[in-house]
Amino acid sequence: xxxxxxxxYITKYSFGNLIETDTVVLKPLGELKENIKYFEFKKSxxxxxxxxxxxxxxxxxxxxxxxxxxxxxxxSFCTDEFSHGPNKKSLYASHNFLLIYGEKTxxxxxxxxxxxxxxxxxxxxxxxxIKIEDENFDLYIIEGKSLEIIAKNFRRLIGKSYAPPKWxxxxxxxRWSYENEDVIRNVFNNFKDRDIPLDCICLDIDYMEKFKDFxxxxxxxxxxxxxxxxxxxxxxxxxxxxxxxxKIEEGYxxxxxxxxxxxxxxxxxxxxxxxxxxxxxxxxxxFLNGEARKWFGSxxxxxxxxxxxxxxxxxxxxxxxxxxxxxxxxxxxxxxxxDKNLDIYTFFDxxxxxPRLSNxxxxxxxxxxxxxGKLIRHDKVHNxxxxxxxxSAYEGFLDIDKNKRFLLFxxxxxxxxxxxxxxxxxxxxxxxxxxxxxxxxxANLNLCGFIYxxxxxxxxxENVTDDLILRWFAFSMFTPLFRNHSSxxxxxxxxxxxxxxxxxxxxNIIKLRYSLIHYIYSEFMKAIKNDELYFKPLTFxxxxxxxxxxxxxxLVGESIMVTPVYKQNQNGRYIYLPExxxxxxxxxxxxxxxxxxxxGHHYIDVKLNEVxxxxxxxxxxxxxxxxxxxxxxxxxxxxILAFLEDKAEYILYNDDGITKAYxxxxxxxxxxxxxxxxxxxxIKVNKSGKCLTKKLNFTIxxxxxxxxxxxxYI
Length: 714
Ligand code: MIG
Hints:
It is built from 14 helices and 44 strands. The chain has 714 residues and is an alpha+beta fold. Helix 5 crosses helix 11, helix 7 runs antiparallel to helix 8 (344-353) and helix 13 (466-476) runs parallel beside helix 14. Helices cover 23% and strands 29% of the residues. The strands form ten sheets. The protein has a nine-stranded parallel β-sheet with strand order 27-26-24-21-16-15-14-29-28. It has a seven-stranded antiparallel β-sheet with strand order 3-1-2-13-10-9-6. It has a six-stranded antiparallel β-sheet with strand order 30-31-32-37-34-35. The mean pLDDT is 97. The protein binds ligand MIG.
């Protein structure tokens, strides 16, 4: 083991010889002579930490169960897992970061691209056990004087998070599958005719010809370019899907070029590895090979030239439906049972043979990547695959226009990938349990750097119910990626597919989202620029032990707290307030009804068409008027809500929303300060940069629920 000092807060422990994983951006300052902190060695690849009874363990990003990970075993091995039940250990991502909060508070990050197992008090309730599959890995210990600072120090280690264009904060409608031009126009017209705001429609695999990447089915999308243009002129962008596997088909340029240049992963016989996914038999581009990555990334231009400005990358765990070898074995197993009086165990074996075909570890162990001339077996670097597919697109975008922000979100991910794109959380199910998991996951995702993220709102698999879609919208309207997506064969779930009353409530929630965009975008961009969290557990801001077990209330940015309802047939829910707060239970975004609730436990009524928003004390919330889409957002006049005891200050951030000028500190600030001087409020407003706001309508509420209104022209 070698020990390195990264900075005053971060120590790196190097075991063996890790390949370049590109997860961290800080290089060591020098070597140290010290032993590993906090952890005890069990073996060279296994460590334990003794947790105290009250310790909370945050982290692991996209994974099952709670915000606090204690009491289960998790695995980092990116998996095409469409059933997100509490029995699962791993979803589509591998986010090897834990933040232990207690008497000792510190972070631990395992830089290793293969399987890592985290037993967080499962086998033994107070023992955190981390097991790494082989001997080449780096372990980082991240310290700092508070949860927030440790989280920030970790983000500095792994680099700045990706920022999409501003329009990507608008509402996105998706379904597998809007199969042709007419269907897409129909979706768009439904939104337009009913005056439901909309920014994006996602194209799933059916826009392609035979599921081939970077092709368009002219049978179904004859005038694709015109469709893109027509919709864009109405402020709506089409977001096509790109899959990882490249169809094996003679004459298909992507296939031919990949073969010619040796850009595909190889099997044990040095031939391109064959797997089967949507296009039938495919080869996997070797995204870990820099040249192959560059080549694939350059292909996005095909669609960008047609007016496309955003993509989603799918199937990049990579998912494998079957391989020929595994299929052959399966048939042989079945033959074994032919014409026999089967014993029941053989029958079970036969029955389970086919489900076992997909995503088999045997397959992951049977192909190779070319890393600077060295062949590396896939399972050793499995978790870097989706990561590098996303990096490939990102690099492709840079070559086309290095100053433009493209929308990119992806399914499989690993720490470090947050620099190149956002994520959606994969194939969840239309169930209240999956809504709950979504809520609890968001803060952990933020901890791992994935700020532009969100789940399939309404649920992907199975049939959504009226109440579930409403409750899910009421939460997703706060997630940076707000996308309604569902699977083919399930109940349709566009807002207009429901009865009028539901449609109206869903539309109102979308409108509320658009009224909050100023705030959401400001908080998102500040989180990115300052390495902070957009979704925060309450423990990050309040020192109140009861909050250690509050997992279903989250801070969204600095001013508000959300308390979503995630159970069926509930007219409200219990909440806990660490201090007094103002509750605005919104059904009509234009009506501001509020009440002040004291510190402590409460039951709040939340009807199906309501979204409870808590405004914290001495905080300010900025609201605008909803628009049809982000391009049409108004900046001239804004509404400022404040819950004031003595003083509140807020900086509303904005930028051009389409370029990377923000990285060069080109953005605007609207700085608002309100001071209470004996129930007369002194308001100071300052603007800098290109701030378009001219009029501010203030509503200031005090502890006694008294309201004062001011209008200020700036
Ligand atoms: O095997 O493209 O997670 O969002 O709709 C399913 C079809 C493949 C999985 C993605 C989902 C998408 C679906 N894809």
